[in-house]
Write the structure tokens for this entry.
Amino acid sequence: MLLATRDELCSGCRTCLVACSLQVYGVVNPKKAALGIAAHFPAPGRYSVITCSQCGTCAEVCPLEAITRRENAYIIDERICNLCGLCISSCPQEAMFTHPDLSTPIKCILCGECVRYCPRQAVYDLHGEVSRK
Amino acid sequence: MQVTLLVYGHAREYFPGRAERYQVQLAGPLSVEAILREHLAVNPSLVMAVMAGGQRHSREYVPQDGEEVVLLSPASGG
Amino acid sequence: MTTSMPGYAGRLLYVDLTSRQWETRPLPGDLAREYLGGRGFVARLLWDEVPTGADPLGPENRVVLATGPLTGLFLPCGGKLHLGAKSPATGGYGDANIGGHLAPELKGAGYDGVVIQGRSPQPCLLVIEDDAVRFMDATPWWGQGAIESEARLKAELGEAFQIMTIGPAGENLVKYACISHDFGRQAGRTGVGAVFGSKRLKAVAIRGSKDIPVFDARAAQAEGRRMYEVCFGKPGFEEWTPYGTAGVTDWVNEVGAFPTRNFQTTYFPQHTEINGRKLKERILVTDKGCFGCPIPCGKYSKVKVPRGMAYVEGPEYETIALMGGNCAVATIEEVGYANYIADELGLDTISGGNVVAFAIECYEKGLLTEAQVGRKLAWGCLDSLVFLLEKIARREGIGDLLAEGVKVAAAVIKGGSDKFAIHVKGLEWSGYDARYAPAMMLSYMTADVGAHHNRSWAITYDVAMGRKSLEGKAEKVVELQHIRPLFDVLGLCRFPWVEIGFELENYAAIFPLVTGWNYSWQDLLRVSERIWNLTRAFSAREIDHYGRAFDYPPPRFYEEPVPDGPAQGQLIPKPQLDELLDRYYRIRGWDEGGLPTREKLQELGLQFVVDTLGPKLS
């Protein structure tokens, strides 16, 4: 699968963020999500969804080579990562995040939970393997 | 002919058996308004609008044979 | 911070704006178990914290913000923040709630609620960022529009903050000033914005990063998934959303309940110019959802009128009713523009629409003159609306009187204007004329905050069961007054239930997984009944001779038959109103004067109310 977005469908509800944190970290906390929503208000009045494109820039720049591709997703090895932050500042999508509770950056592992529960299908699988429930 | 009515929202409470789906056998084409009155004994005013073919219609909409239409409940808010 | 109470952040934040002191206290276990959250916390904390007889606009009044146990979770529509105060509009219990993203942010910052008292020496801003609480000088923003302030504060503090603001109306203590958030959502009713203004609190900005503790996270996740899937699978899940609440406009006209020209009549011939279809076709920019919402009712729009261009969230049905039909404004663009003006000024569009319409009717009847007002007033005239709204928000000229609401304005203007001052308890009437709907009429008469529809929206019951009959109406109103406010207790929006028929059992199913408490739905309803009695008792404590006399609609609704339209000739005569009240009080276990009996209060675990109200009770 590969995440893609239809920003014009996003209503800014952030269900994807909660679904993500719960699936990946087992906690309810939208601040621990591997995707983001930017709201552009009061003008022009739209949302954009920030998702990881699995472009691999993070793996390229990681000085410790803690990020490797497994199947379709780049995954951080938390035993190696020292949270230097280079991947975060290098991410062209700005789709890597940090949280004070966590010792590695937050990065999309392509679990598909956001796709399954985005009510509006604003986040979807470009390959069509995963879809909204 | 047969049409299927799907009841959406809280007005379901006032439909017979509180069901979500009603299959109705009709002798001929009939408006949703008339189907509600004559076949379900439901006050048509409990339906705010009818959705069919992705479009919003009034209760005067006449479903085709085999068609599924959605009945929207009135709702408060704002 | 760990908590012993899953479903809760486990702390309350107490803020004193006079001294700029704050402290956190552990959330009391019995408060959580007996009042659950949201509206329950608001009701009990106001009872405990507000001194009897406090001036609603004085430093002793409290504003309580509260989330619920289901706020911020992975389930449909857990994004509601409830807030309340002793109401400047009614002098009794007042509350309002607001969607957007405030409530999950507050809970994520580690607080189930915030209790704010005092009065800041100068305009201030309360910033809550996880465990850090600070005060900022808000002098630069004082006088600015509510939405403009939010945009500027986001630019200053950061996009990640969720912000609630007041506009000039709140600063100037207009009795129906609202609180604004997320560029167009409001805690609209009962004058909570004026209480903010009285405390010189321009805004609250919140940012939270904590996990929300859940009793059984995996089981709650599975149940949350199922709840979303139930919503996705409902017939017409996609269909309700496009028009939002504006979609009900035609229907309310069809059943003869649409406020028109200050409730002179109940059918507005041009209603199809201001309905959901026109909104979607002419002005809609994007759907805008609150936290966790699969069926976003928020319609973000862009309107152009000769006066100017504006972005506005809405107009929602209530604004369409009160600033549209009730002021006879007949284009969706003009209603949207009036909505924008009210939003920036920080005025509740429901009360605001009522007050403007009341003023126009007074003008029409010669009770207000052009000299008094400062211009001619006319139905359907956007300039009249904007003129009055701005005068009201700044308390200039006639606006100073109109800022008090229709009840006070009628008492000053006289000339029989009290007959068409459309309110109950001092709170103006929302968007459903109930002269041909006894259950809806009783809903308005008995709503704890005043003439508001959200405690019991019973008009479909009237339509289904017969619009003249009184049979079963009081029972239905009581039932709804326990179910609907329960959403405000749990921290939820009720739209999945109302709009798409999402079953109430779903909430009962997830509650124990979140909290670890085995409450049945009936147990939850019992809490709701406890709260209902407590809010009634709060008003009885604060207002002399409170009770039955406060439960009547204005004379227009029992003396003037609807002149035309589908409800032509209808009204509910006073003896029938009394019959409705008698039945309602009996079902509630209240006395004929409309106060809870000692037995009822004791049965609900409200002995402390009995101890306080003592001789007032039978």
In short: Chain A is about 20% helix and 20% strand. Chain A has a mean pLDDT of 97.
